[in-house]
Design goal:
The protein is of the alpha+beta class. The chain folds into 2 domains: about 5-45; about 50-175, PCu(A)C copper chaperone (Immunoglobulin-like), CATH 2.60.40.1890. The protein contains 2 helices and 11 strands, in the order H-H-E-E-E-E-E-E-E-E-E-E-E. Strands 1, 2, 3, 4, 5, 6, 7, 8, 9, 10 and 11 form an 11-stranded mixed beta sheet that branches. The chain binds copper (II) ion (CU). Copper (II) ion binds next to strand 9.
């Protein structure tokens, strides 16, 4: 043995292993690890999904709305595991008087605008469609109550073939581009 117990004690004057967490680097490392673990747990709780026939509905979410807001948007991913196309034809939300399926885009003047998809939204066979900020979304109108961060609200999605399924939207933090368009 080339490393004596006395030399060992000199190298770690505060004692080993008790000294480990007294080093700032170790503490920060442990804190980062704990946060990462917490994030992973929270994320898996939020990454919920629903099924209607061949259609998988991944992580419906919405944003918190300011007091008095009349609209909110719902986002999710629709995956079609079937061999034929299906179509999202309507939606409801318990917070909303009226719920529509919308598409957001840039008009000829370069202004963000959106329109209702009266015929719904096709999900190709074996494919997927993402409803996300700046693109397709569920539009909750005539809001009866604000959507609060950390809470969730129920809604339904109706597909031409897969039928109607109840889903739950997680409410994320306020802000972002869709909150600004006001209708
Ligand atoms: Cu919209």
């Amino acid at each position: 043995m080339t490393f004596s117990a006395r030399a060992f004690a000199r190298s770690f004057p505060l004692g080993w292993p008790a000294s480990r967490l007294r080093s700032p680097e170790e503490r920060i490392g442990l804190a980062v690890f704990a946060l990462a673990l917490l994030f992973a747990m929270t994320h898996s709780l939020w990454a919920h999904e629903f099924k209607a026939g061949d259609i998988e509905i991944v992580h419906p979410w919405s944003r918190a709305t300011p007091e008095g807001a009349k609209v909110a948007a719902g986002y999710l991913v629709l995956k079609n595991h079937g061999g034929s196309p299906d179509r999202l034809v309507s939606a409801t939300g318990e917070v909303a008087g009226v719920t529509q399926i919308h598409e957001m885009g840039v008009d000829a003047n370069g202004v963000m605008s959106m329109k209702q998809l009266a015929d719904g939204l096709e999900i190709p066979a074996g494919g997927e469609v993402a409803l996300k900020p700046g693109s397709f979304h569920i539009m909750f109108m005539d809001l009866r109550k604000p959507a609060r961060e950390g809470q969730s609200f129920k809604g339904t999605l109706t597909f031409e073939k897969a039928g109607t399924v109840e889903v739950e939207y997680s409410v994320d933090a306020m802000g972002g581009e869709h909150a600004d368009h006001g209708g």
